[in-house]
Amino acid sequence: RKMTREKDVARGQWRSKFGFLMAAIGSAVGLGNLWGFPYKMGKSGGGAFLVVYLAVVLLVGVVIMLGELALGRKTGKGAVEAYQAVSKKFAWVGYLGVASPFIILAFYNVLGGMVLKYMVAFVESMFSGGANFANIKSGAYFGEFICNGSDMLLYLAIFELLNIVIVMSGVESGIERFNKYAIPALAIILAGLAVYVYTFPGAEKGLDFMFKPNFAVFSDPEIGFFKVLKTAAGQMFFSLSLGMGVMITYGSYLSKEQDLSREMYIIPLADTIIAVLAGMVVMPACFAFGLAPAGGPSLLFVSLHEVFVTGMGGFSGSFVGFLFYFLVFLAAISSSMSLLEVCVACLLDRQIRKGKAPTRAATTIVLALVLFVVSLPVALDGLGSNVAGGAAMNSPGVMMGLKKIPVAFDCWLDFYDMLSEGVMMPLGSLLMSVMFGWVLGTKVIADEVALTPGKKLRFEWLVDLCFKFIVPVILVVVLLAQLQDFGL
Ligand code: PFF
Ligand code: NA
Question: What stretches pass through the bilayer (predicted)?
Fold first, then answer.
């Protein structure tokens, strides 16, 4: 008894139920909600996409969320050792879970740094009367920034430094404490902005773009049902931080009091609401000022920049711009820290298993340095390409300086993105699903849920059906459809 308690102290534990929820929602809510979801939804059938997305969240997302949280809490271990603890055959799956964060972090931190730069620039603009944005178009401003290697590195370094400080402070005094304030703040700012954008005429057209159901996409030869499904599934994994060991790791810091049969719905629900709400800010903002809808970096760093600087303009434009990038920064860093924590936790587990005292601070710093190096191709991708202006990071011909990718991706960012959300996350989840469905049995999860006094897993038969058949079938289809993107 005393042993386990000592171990918990060494590994860390959430202080409150609310704190865990905010940390988990913080991991989920990120750039995926802000620049991925609204555009993909608008482009892939609007309301029709939403139906498919919600189905994938319910049939796949919710059960994988449950599986990860239960696996973490049951074993009290990070991704690698959690799998090793429950199954010989699947012992290696955890390594996949630790490899994926490296791939995501390689680009995620670069973007986080860029968001930070924009946040700072809008503060500067507030005090300089917009002088720093004068005489330069949004596209050119962005192009100059991403081709400026030292600026890219500087902001990447600052972003990582903030991340290090939070993660090395520990689960409770670092991650939980940050998210407890950051996530409510994010929600409030987002809701405020959603109201504010409707004071501009034409905003409603953004809602049309996003929500108007277009069921014809399912039979469209260019898009079609499988592509919509693949897009929805990839987006869902990325958005809910699944298949990466994050929820296993965060689950390992849970007490038996936390009701998993409820949190398995709350986290996906919160993430989806924020994604829809984000769409109700960014799309109307673009449409109100006559800008074409976009996704990815060009939405965040070009279109919206133009909305704040040219569209809204003046001090209020700068202030709203600052608020917006501050919100994006909170979303990005709370996701980024969860990925770093996955890797840190695995190394700390190892130290504990070997009977050493865990060295969280040193481990975090060393890992972050490794990640910094992995991010370099993305951060410096703009070097060597000459961006005259109007360029976006995700358009062909830009960010190609270091491009030596054998497949048809525009840039390193796209490549890493495809690899993670398109392949590794579905693959990791497929393996977990097979493990629970066919090897361990869903009962293991139901038993874990039932450890919370008075709670039990509802619809256990349905969860079982999902692990055994529904999730594997959907994921095999998704993975096969994905091969096309790699030109196979
Ligand atoms: N869920 C985050 C987003 O939507 O931006 C990104 C992310 C975080 C993906 C953590 C995966 C992960 F493990
Ligand atoms: Na998300």
Answer: 20-38, 50-71, 92-111, 152-169, 181-200, 232-253, 265-292, 322-348, 360-380, 423-440, 461-483
